[in-house]
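Hi everyone,

Forwarding the result from last night's run.
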Amino acid sequence: MKSRTLLIIAFVLIVSPNLTSASQDDDAAVIDSFIGRQAKCERDEEYKEGRRVMTGDLTHNGEPETVVLYTIEGQLGA
């Protein structure tokens, strides 16, 4: 049986405290672009159903940060 390797990476994207639907769309585009580049580098693809996005003031500076947990499956074409 061929084993598959999963890579789980989280990153923080600092966003403006004035969240609007336009900035949320911009955030989604940045997240999609970043994960797409990572998946391309690993020669595989994201398991999009497993993606989790949360926003909150993680640094206690009064501004929200966005954290994204995602999975890239089948590392290096394996």
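Confidence is low (pLDDT under 50) at residues 1-5, 10-16.

Cheers,
N.
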